[in-house]
Write a structure and sequence with these properties.
Elements: E1 4-7, H1 15-26, E2 31-33, E3 40-44, H2 48-58, E4 67-69, H3 76-79, E5 80-81, H4 86-94, E6 99-105, H5 111-114, E7 119-123, H6 128-136, E8 141-142, H7 157-164, E9 170-173, E10 184-187, E11 194-197, H8 203-210, E12 214-215, E13 243-248, H9 251-267, E14 272-276, E15 288-291, H10 298-314, E16 319-322, H11 331-341, E17 346-348, H12 349-354, E18 360-365, H13 371-380, E19 389-394, H14 405-413, E20 435-439, H15 442-451, E21 458-460, H16 461-465, H17 479-504
Parallel strand pairs: 1-9, 2-9, 4-7, 6-10, 11-12, 13-16, 13-17, 14-15, 14-16, 18-19, 18-20, 20-21
Antiparallel strand pairs: 2-3, 3-8, 4-8, 5-6, 6-7, 10-11
The structure holds adenosine monophosphate and magnesium ion.
Pfam families: LMWPc (PF01451), Sua5_C (PF03481), Sua5_yciO_yrdC (PF01300)
GO molecular function, one term: tRNA binding
EC number: 2.7.7.87
């Protein structure tokens, strides 16, 4: 089947497109269309056969009921019975909008649409294209997300075509969606009403209108053994092809842990994806890093989540690490979808971080012009099991200078360079629990300890490498002296690397 694609603008709806799409739906066909949450796969909700086609196109298990979309509030009474009194207030506040309510169904709703249940889920979308289409189709359009079952929900018409091109009659392209996550589902058949799926409309917002609501305990976390009350929530949904793990902790720990995990995975030759935010983007060096939005406005994160999961699929990454997001407002819905995408795989940031004793290594010499920078560059070239920021600094650096020319000449002949180096003064900001300080000799170490009483993790290179070979001072001597110094440093730094790698393996 060839899928017709028609564009229309929300602000200037093409009536002809809507009429054509409405006719397809009335005849029992399938039309994908934009809503404010995600793209929906529309079918006439009152035709049993149309529901069957929906399940087939999506590859969706047929016990997973569809949400019926309406455009006019009066239509609710035609498909639902025993509608509780609070419904008016909820509808007045949140309809049209990203809220789905569940009621006892009336006889005109076929079991094909409700997955065999005696209840029906109903929503009134706010997207004007959706509303016009629903009216043109006769008032009742079932519309699950327009993706292949198990893939991330579509937030653009392109996503719909990726999954369902050739399998459905038509796609109405109305641009990107506004919210990006599926509607909040509220079960109105229980007292008090119960949230079965978190979304843009939160428990607090309901509370302001009708008082307390309850929450299906299976929504977050894998602890609950009970099946979720919304049948669809039991499937590993929204999932990318890659293994996705959510890293949890405070934000600083999450960043450190993800850096470490991404470094380790890259060393194994794996392609790693990282879900980061505007605020944390600059901290990552390894892996394919994607910016999901800003922590200042979690709506941006909701809007980009599914697109980013799809992009990682296209780039064929093996493993994705994601930061966690605050569980406030729409954050709950974001974490709920992320957890499902991850199949509940969570990693404690603190546990990962604890495994790494040092994160930064600073070689300290007197002027930071030759031996220190050479040692730092040599260590950068080593095959290290864990990632470190490797620097060199001097005890007396009056102004920044490039590396000594003879040192650079020796490094160049060994295939390295100090061209990026500028000498820097050591100061007490560099004294941290996870910083290893390697002094070039006893004199440098003593000066550091004399000047900084709170200094920790300070060793000479010899001490740390457990090798007493003295590092000669080539300053003012011919090139050959720099060459000899290089040879000694190379051996000692090799031993430093071995020791760091032993720490990485958990040896003391
Ligand atoms: P989707 O249309 O892809 O957003 O999925 C619809 C969601 O609504 C699924 O999780 C369904 O299980 C849920 N749902 C639809 N109808 C009912 C119902 N009558 N009772 C409980 N959950 C429902
Ligand atoms: Mg869905």
């Amino acid at each position: 089947m060839e899928t017709i694609v028609k564009k229309t603008d929300k602000n200037q709806i093409d009536k002809e497109v809507i009429r054509e799409a409405g006719d397809i739906l009335k005849k029992g066909g399938l039309v994908a269309f934009p809503t404010e949450t995600v793209y929906g796969l529309g079918a006439d909700a009152l035709q049993e056969e149309a529901a069957k086609k929906t399940y087939e196109a999506k590859g969706r298990p047929s016990d997973n009921p569809l949400i019926v979309h309406i455009a006019d509030y009066e239509d609710l009474k035609k498909i639902a019975v025993n509608i509780p009194a609070e419904t008016d207030a909820l509808a007045a506040h949140f309809w049209p909008g990203p809220l789905t309510m569940i009621f006892e169904k009336s006889d005109i709703v076929p079991y094909g649409t409700t997955g065999g249940l005696d209840t029906v889920a109903v929503r009134m979308p706010s997207d004007p294209v959706a509303a016009e289409l629903i009216r043109a189709a006769g008032g009742f359009v079932s519309a699950p997300s327009a993706n292949t079952s198990g893939r991330p929900s579509p937030t653009t018409a392109e996503h719909v075509l990726e999954d369902l091109g050739g399998k459905i009659d038509m796609v109405i392209d109305g641009g990107s969606v506004e919210i990006g996550l599926e509607s909040t589902i509220l079960d109105m058949t229980v007292e008090p009403p119960m949230i079965l799926r978190p979304g843009a409309i939160t428990a607090d917002m309901f509370e302001e209108v009708i008082g307390p609501v309850s929450v299906d305990e299976t929504i977050l976390g894998s602890e609950s053994k009970k099946p979720p009350k919304a049948p669809g929530m039991k499937y590993r949904h929204y999932a990318p092809k890659a293994r996705l793990a959510i890293v949890e902790g405070d934000l600083r720990e999450e960043i450190l842990a993800i850096r470490q995990l991404a470094y380790a995975a890259s060393r194994e030759g794996k392609k790693v994806g990282i879900i980061a935010t505007d605020e944390t983007l600059p901290f990552y060096k390894y892996g394919l890093v994607k910016d999901i939005g800003t922590r200042e406005n979690e709506k941006t994160i909701a809007r980009n989540l599914y697109r980013i999961l799809r992009e990682f699929d296209e780039e064929d990454v093996d493993t994705i690490y994601s930061e966690s997001f605050a569980m406030q407002g729409i954050g709950k819905a974001i974490m709920n979808r992320l957890e499902k995408a991850a199949g509940h795989l969570r990693i404690s940031a603190a546990a990962v971080v604890k495994e790494q004793r040092y994160r930064r290594i600073i070689f300290v010499s007197s002027a930071d012009s030759a031996r220190g920078p050479m040692a730092a560059e040599l260590l950068r070239q080593e095959d290290l099991e864990q990632e470190y920021v490797i620097d060199s600094m001097g005890i007396v650096v009056l102004f920044p200078e490039p590396a000594n020319q003879k040192a650079e000449a020796i490094m160049k002949s060994a295939g390295m360079t100090l061209a990026q180096h500028t000498s820097r003064q050591f100061n007490d900001e560099n004294l941290q629990d996870d910083v290893l300080i390697l002094a070039i000799n006893e004199a440098a170490k003593s000066k550091l300890l004399a000047e900084y009483q709170n200094a920790v993790n300070v060793y000479t290179i010899n001490e740390f490498a457990e090798d007493e070979t003295e590092i000669p001072d080539p300053y003012g001597k011919p090139l050959t002296a720099y060459g000899e110094c290089y040879e000694v440093l190379k051996v000692l730094v090799g031993k430093v690397a071995e020791k760091l790698n032993a720490f990485a393996k958990g040896e003391k």
